[in-house]
Amino acid sequence: MENLDYRALAVLDAVVRHGSFEKAALALGITQSAVSQRVKVLEDSSGRLLIVRGQPASPTGLGQRLIVHYRHVKLMESALDIDLGNHVSMPEMAIAMDADSLATWFPATMLPLLTPPRCQLDIRTADSEQAMQLVREGSVFGCIAAGTDALADEVAGTTVTALGLMRYVCVATPMFAGHWFGDGFSAEAVQLAPAAVSDRRLLERFLHQQFALVAHFPHHTIPASTALNEAIEGGMAYGLMPLLQVQGALASQRLLDLTPGRCLDLPLQWHAWTLDTPFTKLLSEQIVGSARRVLLQ
């Protein structure tokens, strides 16, 4: 496509962000017919459908690639304005990560990034598969994801950097352990004792490591890391928790390690679009540096 109309691309982006032509029109302060007209101009010039008209409206493959291009150009324009000393509203910067990283090591990354503020940071919690999909579709600049075989393929136009290992330990309160695991942490006991999980696959992997267990195990699903921690510390369940999050509780014996010397190490990676701006470089450097200072190497 030659001579891209960036005003029309802004409209296309708004339709996808807000999920409908009507909501995009309200957000942009223009009429719905103007939104439709600008999208149609883009579609006519490309000869392809860019938006699937549905509830919500969603981009086609080419539509998504145009949106990714537009968002990257906006970030680079903002960086250039800052370099030139021009007044500029802070650009939005979206990143995705697991709830455990957000609850443990990531907050220390934000201080040097946001003092002084350089962007409007939009942090989205997502498991690794969801986070990688957000990167692929350009909804986020980068993500922290587990380095599993399923995620090994690098997204074209991105870089992948190893961060380190997030270590998980299997814990419970002394009272819970005494009631459910009085005879030891065994395959038979875990098929009766209630667990608490945010991502069931982590505990499945751990139990398979310990017992080659593939059977069902009872569990509560609690997506928020802090709420999951409270459920386990409250004696309602056992579960895997990041060692970073429960070191104090283990030291004070509010929690017990149910499998001393046995843990689950999850390799984390930083996936980010390759954009040559001072802020995106700083963002990646801070995330990688903070992770490597805290995570196991």
Main beta sheet: 7 strands, mixed
Amount of helix: 40-55%
Shape: elongated
- Number of distinct helices: 13
Key terms:
297 residues, alpha/beta, 7-stranded mixed β-sheet, two-stranded antiparallel ribbon
Molecular structure report:
The chain is α/β, with parallel strands linked by helices. It has helices spanning 6-18, 21-28, 32-46, 61-84, 99-103, 107-114, 128-136, 174-180, 187-190, 200-211, 225-233, 243-251, 278-294; strands spanning 51-52, 58-59, 92-97, 120-125, 142-146, 158-172, 195-197, 219-221, 239-242, 256-257, 264-273. The strands form 3 sheets. Strands 3, 4, 5, 6, 9, 10 and 11 form a 7-stranded mixed β-sheet that branches. Strand 7 (195-197), helix 10 and strand 8 form a beta-alpha-beta unit. It is elongated. The model has no long low-confidence stretch (mean pLDDT 86).
